[in-house]
Design goal:
By secondary structure, this protein is mainly α. It is 81% helix and 0% strand. The protein has three helices and no strands. α1 runs antiparallel to α2 and α2 (48-71) runs antiparallel to α3 (81-119).
Length: 120
């Protein structure tokens, strides 16, 4: 038997997993758009595979696993949520920083192109 508090917690965990997946899909679409619009430098650095592919898959699996154990009535795996959210926060900061750097790079390139066109 579950209590109302357990049902509410389970629904919140499922909502968090759902919104995480929606954000991951939105991030993926944004990344694809950025790759098609920028021509000079891509964020495919050494950590691209780790931060954009492996970690999102791993923390999605962990979140689903924690959700299943909570539904089963066990709370022993809840401590895994702390490293998952730290990794997600770190990945979000890295993505925002890369986006900021690429935006500045694109602005500088546009200014150079404008200046060279005006000089001709």
């Amino acid at each position: 038997r579950r209590t109302c508090l357990q049902d509410e917690y389970v629904s919140r965990v499922f909502a968090a997993v759902y919104y995480h997946d929606r954000l991951a899909a939105l991030s993926s679409r944004l990344q694809q758009r950025l790759e098609h619009t920028t021509t000079e430098c891509h964020p495919n650095g050494p950590g691209f595979l780790l931060w954009r592919v492996i970690l999102p898959i791993a923390w999605s699996i962990v979140l689903v696993g924690v959700s299943v154990t909570v539904i089963g009535g066990t709370t022993g795996w809840l401590y895994w949520l702390v490293p998952v959210f730290i990794a997600r926060l770190t990945a979000a900061v890295r993505s925002a920083w890369e986006l900021l750097l690429h935006f500045g790079h694109d602005e500088a390139r546009d200014e150079r192109e404008t200046a060279s066109a005006m000089g001709q």
